[in-house]
């Protein structure tokens, strides 16, 4: 018996959440991608100390949802798995660009744009910018792996035009010393000039560290 696999594109309604109000007073536009087994609003809670008049934050939610306990309990989302990964990369890249561009065209001329991805969301952001041409001022992969299977020289986005900040906690249970060395080698091979910001903490978005990065790199 021969079984053949096929693919078909079909419309899907995506969910996203927002913090702040987009207006002529908006100075910073954040586009933040959650990690695996999370919901989009969980990322927005990290911005509660940011002024909603000058900071506008959009958090898209992964296109795949599932029950965290198998058949019940809390519903969470994910960006991709190893199954049909190329199609999933294309789908979330088109989704993110569509949502991102919808708001970018409405921003004040002087507004700064920031893409931040936590954990799986950071990997998603890297793959998205590789797959499609995205104009952004700052990229913050937060506590995440840097994909090693990407040829960064062929990326649709120009990495050299982006200020890139890689940050993670020194007690991150997923980023041990061996993993960090591997990430450094990947960045070197891909000619990615990241600013590395390490702080005392584990695998989560630390609000103080986020504020520090904003003050040090973005606000100035």
Task: Write structural notes for this entry.
It is a single chain. The protein is of the alpha/beta class and 220 residues long. The chain has a single domain (16-218), classed as 3-Layer(aba) Sandwich (Rossmann fold), CATH 3.40.50.1820. 28% of the residues lie in helices and 22% in strands. It contains five helices and nine strands; from the N terminus they run ββαβββαβαββαβα. It has helices at residues 40-44, 85-104, 120-131, 177-189, 207-218, and strands at 16-19, 28-33, 55-60, 64-67, 75-78, 112-118, 138-142, 163-169, 195-199. The strands form two sheets. The protein has a seven-stranded mixed β-sheet with strand order 1-3-2-6-7-8-9, with helices on both faces. α2 crosses α3 (120-131). The longest helix is centred in the middle third of the chain and has 20 residues, at 85-104. The protein is globular. The model has no long low-confidence stretch (mean pLDDT 96).
Name the descriptors.
220 residues, alpha/beta, Rossmann fold, 9 strands, 22% strand
> What does the radius of gyration come to?
17 Å
CATH class division: Alpha Beta
Structural class: alpha/beta
Number of strands: 9
Instruction: List the domain count as a whole number.
Output: 1
Main sheet?
7 strands, mixed
Strand content: 15-25%
Identify the overall geometry: globular
Instruction: Report the CATH architecture.
Output: 3-Layer(aba) Sandwich
First-to-last CA distance: 64 Å
Estimate percent helicity: 25-40%
Low-confidence stretches: none
CATH fold category name: Rossmann fold
How do the SSEs run, as a string of H and E? EEHEEEHEHEEHEH
- Report the average pLDDT across residues: 96
The CATH homologous superfamily name equals Alpha/Beta hydrolase fold, catalytic domain
Q: What is the tally of helical segments?
A: 5
Name the strands of the widest sheet in spatial order.
1-3-2-6-7-8-9
């Amino acid at each position: 018996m021969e079984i053949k696999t096929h693919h078909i594109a079909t419309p899907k309604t995506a969910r996203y959440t927002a913090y702040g109000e987009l207006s002529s007073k908006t100075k910073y536009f954040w586009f933040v991608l959650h990690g695996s087994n999370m919901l989009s609003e969980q990322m927005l809670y990290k911005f509660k100390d940011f002024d909603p008049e000058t900071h506008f934050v959009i958090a898209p939610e992964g296109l795949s949802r599932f029950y965290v306990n198998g058949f019940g309990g809390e519903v969470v989302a994910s960006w991709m798995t190893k199954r049909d990964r190329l199609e999933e990369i294309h789908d979330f890249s088109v989704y993110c660009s569509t949502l991102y561009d919808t708001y970018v065209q409405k921003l004040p001329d002087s507004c700064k744009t920031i893409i931040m991805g936590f954990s799986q969301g950071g990997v998603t952001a890297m793959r998205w910018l590789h797959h499609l041409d995205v104009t952004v001022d700052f990229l913050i992969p937060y506590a995440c792996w840097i994909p090693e299977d990407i040829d960064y020289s062929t990326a649709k986005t120009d990495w050299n035009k982006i200020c890139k900040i890689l940050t993670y906690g020194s007690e991150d249970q997923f980023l041990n010393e061996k993993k960090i060395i591997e990430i450094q080698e990947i960045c070197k091979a891909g000619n990615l000039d990241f600013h590395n910001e390490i702080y005392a903490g584990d695998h989560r978005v630390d609000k103080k560290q986020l504020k520090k990065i904003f003050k040090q790199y973005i606000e100035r």
